[in-house]
Design goal:
By secondary structure, the protein is of the alpha+beta class. Helices cover 48% and strands 14% of the residues. The protein is built from 8 helices and 9 strands. It folds into 2 domains: 110 residues, Orthogonal Bundle (Penicillin binding protein transpeptidase fold); 91 residues, 2-Layer Sandwich (Penicillin-binding protein 1b fold), CATH 3.30.2060.10.
Amino acid sequence: MRKLIGIKTKLRVALQVMVKHRGQILGAIGISILLVMVIAVVEVMASYSRYAAIIDARLADRSLLYPAGIYAAPCRVSLGERITRDDLVERLLRAGYQESERSNEFAAGSFTLQPDSVEFRTNEFAVSPGLPALARVSFDRDRVSQIEDGHTDQQLNAVHLPPEMLTADITAKKQTRRATSFDDLPPLFVKALSAIEDRQFFAHRGVDVRGTLRALFTNLVSGRIRQGGSTITQQLIKSQFLTPERTYERKLAEAMMAIAIERRLTKEPYSTASVSKRLTA
């Protein structure tokens, strides 16, 4: 009985002390929570910077723009060569150019046609010492009569077009590929793909928070990873940068890199790239 009274007395004293110093206690708790939040934010920012650097490196070395596969030798177009304007157009198409005023980031470039000449612009990642950013090739009687740098008007003896991609898989049969722009995709196809794969594709910033929370809840209930909640952007990241293993660490990396790539590219080019990789897989 005495022990019970003693315990009650100690509890009463402890409560009185807590009430007397509740401001200091609540302040200490608040500071601790704030400190934990600051550490978490710093960790998230550091993680994002690390994964964003990976995205920047892959964009800089062209590996995302030039997928793995077998390429032909660069095609040379020389002054006096016997080819027609249509022949050059076919070479440009095979090299990844698009007939338009402006191409998307994943195409080698774009070209426009004149009655007796072809002017083509090359995207920065495909420009080389033998290929200026803007070139103009003129024809006379089915021969190349003039090649000039469109920016400097310098006369050139030849230009070297980017190599044509023969196959996206070294174990696959030969297949040629041409760059596809977002405008080339049928609107119904785009709507169907987004409806099936990612309904919020044109609304989110790389990660669908609602879909991710829904997938997280399903995984917690089931006790294992059953859903991923990945957006189209995250699926492209997973296929190009990460392994297919289902872990929360990989999911975090996938989300960080998806946010990073959406801050660097518009929706259209990498959604087209995602479609192209699916069709040629």
